[in-house]
Amino acid sequence: ISIFWFGYSFFPLIGLYTVPVNVFPVIYIFAAIFLFALPAYFINWNLARAKNSLKAKMQLQYEFHTDFLMKTFYAIQILVVVIILLDIMAQGFSIRDVVFNLMEISSQYIALRYSNEVNISILSRMGTVFNYVGVMLGGLVFSTTNRQVKKYFILLLTLFPSVIIMFVQGAKGTLFLCAV
């Protein structure tokens, strides 16, 4: 994942020929990401996978694979998306503009954020809190789901509100925190 963030920051700079790029911050970001990921290269991953496969999954399924937890997860994710949409409308944007003019709305939202003109309301706070609660519940549901197709669906649904926030508000930190 750490190399992904370097690529996410570096590769757009390659395509933007007219943007002046200072090489020292790029080297700093690469070095920080490399040092952060360095311990992963010293782990015996085959042994770790073998030990993890020996863990008893049945006990987890009885504790966390319940209809109540699944319904709560779905309800919180739907609630988060609704709160995000209401917060976007509270900032003065329409949902139609977001759907059909995403890049312009995103740049306007980023400009509002950096000029400290974003209307911070209870909706934005609730969206943040419920987003992280939904991610935690999604992790529990994901870990106890058996079918591969359903696992991918739960993973996508878990990260969906963070992806909306990243595209509309230009805040990639939320996606990073939810992915970790």
Mind sketching the topology for me?
Layout lengths: L1 H14 L7 H15 L7 H9 L3 H8 L2 H24 L4 H6 L1 H13 L7 H23 L3 H22 L2 H8 L1
Percent range for β-strand residues: under 5%
Can you tell me the overall shape? flat
- The total of helices stands at 10
**Unreliably modeled segments:** none
Secondary-structure element series = HHHHHHHHHH
Estimate percent helicity.
over 70%
Mean pLDDT: 84
Over all CA atoms, what is the radius of gyration? 20 Å
SS content category: mainly alpha
The count of β-strands is 0
Termini gap = 9 Å
Largest sheet: none
Main attributes of the structure:
mainly alpha; 10 helices; single chain; 0% strand; 180 residues
Please tell me about this protein's structure.
With about 180 residues, the chain is mainly α. It has helices spanning about 1-15, 25-35, 45-55, 55-65, 65-90, 95-100, 100-115, 120-145, 150-170, 170-180. The termini are close together.
